[in-house]
Design a protein that fits this description.
Length: 398
């Protein structure tokens, strides 16, 4: 079979899940509309003859380093061991994490949502990498944070859910099987592996991203982690998409007026990609929700990973670190696990309004410089968000 036919067949089978319109666009690109072979100079993407069970081979390099693994199967599973072990956690990764790979210049760590479906998010992330022509020089990683209800491999760390602890895996919560570990330690270990110059000598940037519950994780990890700014020659950034709640840096909350007015809040979708800024802030009546400002929704009673950190340190890091907030234009309905608890409703009537209000507050009060992108026509859908054209440069920066 001609190489191009193999390529098209492989692309269809690998990316069929993104839907017919996107699959059609990918085929158009492969058949010549994006260039002779659909790739940028020096890239292989998926636009070459494909070796059995994987992607393109590059002559003169080892298979482990040269071939991006793009399917959420055991072939793409890697294990992160904590310290000397035996505790460990699983990730999907396009490349081995313990093999020298000089062509990798950046990394994307994509955190799953409430369903803990790392396989789905790995597919989303690899699809985005394909569309962004980033498969060759980016290691794409999707960590799997399991809870008590998930199948467990030997020595695999189990993370807390709401029923275990209000500070759960989304928030840097303490493991239920290994109490010396928190969920943020998991991503810290991934980052440390990526910073190992023996294996990734040319890596210069790491993006941590997540959608929905993964967006909550990313928002809190961004302000809390102790690695950003300490890695020699490596910078970090964050892409927070459509979380139901944020860790607010003060006891203030959006007042229910202007763009935070709950009446007809869904109509904000009609504004298109315009970022709403009509927010006023003030004290929240704690008598209604005494726990509204406790971590992870606020800065009181810090627990888990941030237990020994101060609110001032978290605010400082929140202001300093490079973060983009990705909000679906039509993510204005209480769908997809929407948090309608009183503590979350104190942050705004919809996910979109909560993100806009939060970004404006940290810019006005903390001097942060957040980027906000209203992603056109997307609702509460990770695949729509992360495969949209103006989002690709955020998760695959040059």
């Amino acid at each position: 079979m001609p190489a191009q036919h193999v390529t098209v067949s492989r692309a269809v089978s690998t990316f069929a899940y993104v839907g017919r319109p996107l699959a059609a666009a990918i085929l158009v690109c492969l058949l010549g509309a994006c260039g002779q072979d659909g790739t940028a100079p020096g890239q292989t993407g998926l636009n070459q003859a494909v070796a059995p069970g994987g992607a393109a081979r590059v002559e003169g390099t080892s298979a482990a380093a040269a071939t991006p693994c793009v399917e959420a199967t055991t072939a793409c599973e890697r294990w992160i061991t904590y310290g000397k072990g035996p505790a460990r956690s699983m990730v999907y990764s396009t490349y081995a994490l313990d093999t020298p790979n000089p062509k990798v210049t950046r990394a994307l760590i994509m955190v799953h949502g409430a369903l803990r479906n790392a396989d789905h998010y790995f597919r989303t992330a690899t699809t985005a990498a394909f569309l962004g022509r980033a498969l060759d020089d980016t290691v794409v990683i999707a960590p799997h944070l399991i809870d008590r209800s998930d199948p467990r491999q030997e020595n695999e760390v189990v993370w807390p859910e709401y029923k275990d602890n209000p500070v759960n895996w989304r928030d840097g919560g303490v493991s239920v099987t290994d109490p010396g570990l928190t969920s943020f330690d998991f991503v810290d270990e991934i980052v440390r592996k990526l910073a190992d110059r023996k294996n990734f000598p040319n890596l210069t940037h790491i993006v941590v991203a997540g959608h929905s519950a993964g967006g909550q994780f990313t928002n809190r990890y961004e302000m809390a982690n102790k690695l950003d700014g300490t890695l020699d020659g490596i910078t970090m950034s964050y892409a927070v998409a459509n979380p139901s709640s944020y860790a607010w840096p003060s006891s203030d909350r959006p007042l229910p007026v202007g763009d935070a007015d709950p009446k007809d809040a869904y109509k904000e979708a009609m504004k298109g990609e315009e970022v709403s800024t009509d927010f006023k802030y003030g004290p929240f009546d704690a008598a209604k929700v005494p726990t509204y400002n406790k971590w992870p929704k606020g800065m009181e009673d810090l627990g888990g990973y941030v237990k020994d950190m101060g609110a001032d340190q978290l605010r400082k890091q929140l202001a300093e670190r490079k973060t983009t907030y990705l909000l679906g234009q039509v993510d204005v309905l209480p769908l997809g696990g929407f948090d309608s608890s009183p503590g979350a409703m104190a942050q705004g009537p919809t996910r979109r309004a909560r993100g806009e209000a939060y970004a404006k507050y940290i810019e006005d009060k903390l001097g942060a410089k957040p980027q906000v992108i209203i992603v056109s026509e997307c609702g509460h859908n990770d695949r729509c968000i992360y495969t949209t054209g103006n989002v690709l440069p955020v998760i695959f920066p040059k």
